[in-house]
Design brief:
By secondary structure, the protein is of the alpha+beta class. The chain has 2 domains: 71 residues, Translation initiation factor 3 (IF-3), N-terminal domain (Ubiquitin-like (UB roll), Roll); 81 residues, 2-Layer Sandwich (Translation Initiation Factor IF3). The protein is built from 5 helices and 9 strands. The strands form 2 sheets. Strands 5, 6, 7, 8 and 9 form a 5-stranded mixed sheet that branches. Helix 4 links the parallel strand 5 and strand 6. The longest helix has 16 residues. The two termini are 49 Å apart.
Length: 162
Amino acid sequence: MIQKELLRLKPDKVLVTDEEGKKIGVLSFDEAIKLAEEQNKDLFLITDKAPVVVVRIGDYKKYLYLKEKKKKEVKKPKEMKTVRIGVNEAQADLERKAKMIEKFLSEGYPVEVRMFIKGRQQIHHDFVKERFQKFLDMIQNKKLTQPIKDTQNLIIAYLAKL
């Protein structure tokens, strides 16, 4: 089968590629049609914006399926990873969680860091805020994507890779 859009263009010369995208060479349009018919495969347009029209010999429906799948994959954003820390958490635990956040960031995930403030800890909000900032300073190669959200019982920071 030869794509209708390709028949409308009817170019003199075409760059022919196979199913894997490897170049077969620059052929006349009629030679490309014959080659596709010999292999019992489809001849379809890849791009007509190049100096020489690029066509492919292969399964057209498979090409459309893979193209659509790739398009969906690009649109899907990576899920946000959430890390919770406590005010009275040990230094070793904070270091472990900082390394975990660095790993998430290096893999391309956005990270949400939450610190819950309970009961009497709310009285010492300045201390809690300072402790949260020290934890954020432990994390390498990060940037804040939004300002730090600070409420009475919760502090949230959204991080992304630099």
